[in-house]
User: What shape does this take?
Amino acid sequence: MLEQITQIAREAGALLREGFGRQQTINKTESHDIKLQMDVDCQRLIENRLLKLFPDHSIVGEENSQGDPRAEHRWIIDPLDGTVNYTYGLPHFCVSIALQRRQAKTSLSAPCGGYESVLGVIYDPMRDEIFTAGEGKGARLNGRPLRVSDRTTLGDAIISVGFAKSAESIENGLRNYQTLVRRVRKVRTWGSAALDLAYIAAGRMEAYYETQIQIWDIAAGILMVQEAGGTVKLDPLSSDGRIFSALVSNGKVDILGALRST
Assistant: This one.
């Protein structure tokens, strides 16, 4: 199955790469976000491939959701994570696809709506880097096993702080940024949560913190980090299990301690 999903991610990534740097059709603009027709086109491509292979599965995507919400398995899709980067010609974006399985004896109000990620693929088409993870099978980058970094000291760590669209999230992000920038080596805001998590799994950075993040941004990445030896803390912010406060790290740097010390 992983090989099939990898191929789907590569196909969607090829579409993104072909359109990169060209005039984009903008469907909607918001204060801190942009919706492209390219997002829709990539999601349709992925949906068509998945439903042909797995007609009994449901799909939850940033652009659309379909199928039985009570299905035992569901696919979580972000066809273009990093849309603003893509629109402005910044080559930092990706395709994210995750398979989740319903947990036994768990209510829909539980983290991830009672589901857990069992397979994840994140593809960066500009660097041709494909990050993969399978439950109990580890995480890999272009076939090479991944492990989170061994850094334990905040002063040595690179941390990503996410900013969502709401005023509350922006204020929280600014407070967290001001706290952490004084304690860590560097704070980054890359504009693609999925790649942030993939980079943690690859040992390129130590942690990611966001007080309001959507499930499709992190479903593949949280499994990747866990399989690479890191830790994930999700606090649901919506009854449908689609919005979270997320702290993802190598499990060795004390991000919460730094945030609580202020």
Notes: Confidence is low (pLDDT under 50) at residues 106-110. The domain at 2-145 is CATH 3.30.540.10 (Fructose-1,6-Bisphosphatase; Chain A, domain 1). The chain has seven helices and 15 strands.
